[in-house]
Specification:
OB fold (Dihydrolipoamide Acetyltransferase, E2P); BirA Bifunctional Protein, domain 2; 2 domains; five-stranded mixed beta barrel; 30% helix; 25% strand
């Protein structure tokens, strides 16, 4: 059996025998010649076959050549093939400057002749047939970028001696908000909850003396939102570190992480992103701008927008406005919004005694929040008091609070939505476009 060659390896090969496998993107069946555009996971190549048609006078003809022509004429878009033939470099060929003259063709899996989606189909329709939608070169690139982004982040952490952890997604009690929990029956007499965050377990790793940890994994939110940036299941990028002085240590680590990851994406995919998405990947300079929340309110008001929220947090338009200011004033796509009031932060965020504000931040990227980070409260008496102030029952937090009864060092960390980062990095309008299979309030399939 001839070894399969990927399309992106063909340009480096000399003219001669070759075997490629992929799916049919287009067929041009002309009277004297047939062209097939075959695409695999790395690119597309033109296949050519001199067409052999039945002789009008009924004369004897090459049966194999006739059969090949007939097979090509009946190929449906999306059919998977293996083709053997002669590779030829020819600069006149628009697609990559090379083509393969077909000598043998095996249909591994034929597709139905009518495809259920088109390039102009609605997003919902495309999501119904996501496996077909993902065959596009543009969509293929999204997940190559995602792979590079995740690998670069892991490499950053591993190079700095972080430990990768995999926390449970089934929990006996909620990790954050009761209102956003998915519950399910757990054997005969128990109720389990899908994890909204690895927060408690990241902190447990600090109690265990791990020092620096990270996780890239699924989280679940029973949030009925239908916005372009919310999902009920998504990939969260989390890190937690010990022996910090404030949330600034966490922010400094995260901005280094993002700069390294975006640099890796630009180096590997920058030209193709520019071609297919029209986006110039900008590697952020360090440090990112920092703006306290009260200052952000003032700037947004001066830009003519009054934030309607009564809790003091920024709303989506407020986030866009402050990010527009940062782009104009600093030429930067990122900004840390800092110094949040305790009323709008979780009970485990540390409160600065000098200001009465939490040692926390939100990170905005191109006008959208992608992260919440903070120094955590590690003193058990303060932590219990803050939980009670939030109206929480300590018995429901018993396992979590036990971590702190036996000593936990000063620590902090962040959680970041991977899909939001990808969406903004590639200039897409919705996380649905950059999620392999999206899950939302009305979507559980495919």
């Amino acid at each position: 059996m001839t070894e399969r060659v990927l399309v992106n390896q063909l340009s480096a090969r000399a003219d001669g025998p070759v075997s490629v496998s992929g799916w049919v993107e287009t067929v041009r069946d002309q009277k004297k010649v047939q062209f097939v555009i075959l695409r695999d996971e790395t690119g597309a190549v033109q296949l050519v076959n001199p067409a052999t048609r039945p002789a009008e006078d009924g004369g004897e003809q090459d049966a194999a050549a006739l059969a090949l022509t007939d097979t090509i004429s009946n190929l449906a878009h999306g059919s998977f093939l293996t083709v053997t033939g002669a590779l030829k470099h020819d600069e006149r060929v628009k697609l990559g400057g090379l083509e393969i003259k077909i000598e043998g063709l095996d249909v591994a899996a034929a597709a139905l002749p009518e495809t259920p989606i088109a390039t102009d189909s609605s997003m919902d329709k495309r999501m119904d047939w996501r496996f077909l939608d993902l065959r596009q070169r543009r969509n293929n690139l999204i997940f190559r970028v995602s792979t590079t982004l995740e690998h670069a982040m892991r490499q950053y952490w591993i190079d700095r001696d972080y430990i990768e952890i995999h926390t449970p997604k089934l929990m006996s009690s909620p990790s954050e908000s009761n209102a956003e929990l998915f519950s399910l029956g757990y054997f005969e007499d128990k109720t389990a909850y899908l994890a909204q965050s690895p927060q408690h377990y990241k902190q447990m790793a600090q109690a265990a003396g791990f020092g620096k940890v990270f996780e890239i994994g699924d989280v679940f939110r029973a949030d009925p939102s239908f916005t372009s940036r919310h999902a009920t299941e998504f990939t969260s990028v989390d890190a937690e570190i010990s022996w910090i002085d404030s949330h600034e240590d966490v922010a400094a680590m995260q901005e280094e992480l993002l700069a390294a990851a975006i640099q890796a994406v630009k180096d590997k995919h920058g030209d193709e992103i520019a071609e297919l998405f029209g986006i110039d990947v900008v590697v952020p300079t360090l440090p990112f701008p920092r703006i306290p929340l009260t200052e952000a309110h003032r700037i947004v008001a001066e830009r003519g927008y009054e934030i309607p929220r009564t809790d003091g947090d920024l709303d989506p338009e407020g986030e866009r406005q402050i990010s527009a200011h940062v782009a104009e004033a600093y030429g930067h796509e990122f900004v840390f919004i800092t110094d949040y009031h305790a009323e709008i932060r979780p009970f485990y965020h540390m409160i600065d005694p000098a200001t009465g504000l939490t040692r926390s931040y939100d990170l905005l990227f191109k006008g959208v929040e992608i992260t919440t980070g903070a120094q955590r409260e590690h003193r058990i008496d303060v932590l219990e008091r803050q939980a009670l102030d939030k109206g929480l029952k300590l018995e429901g937090l018993a396992h979590y609070l036990d971590f702190f009864r036996y000593g936990v060092p000063p620590h902090g960390g962040f959680g970041m939505g991977l899909a939001r980062v990808l969406m903004l990095l590639l200039g897409e309008s919705s996380i649905r476009e950059v999620t392999f299979l999206f899950r939302g309030p009305t979507r559980l399939a495919p």
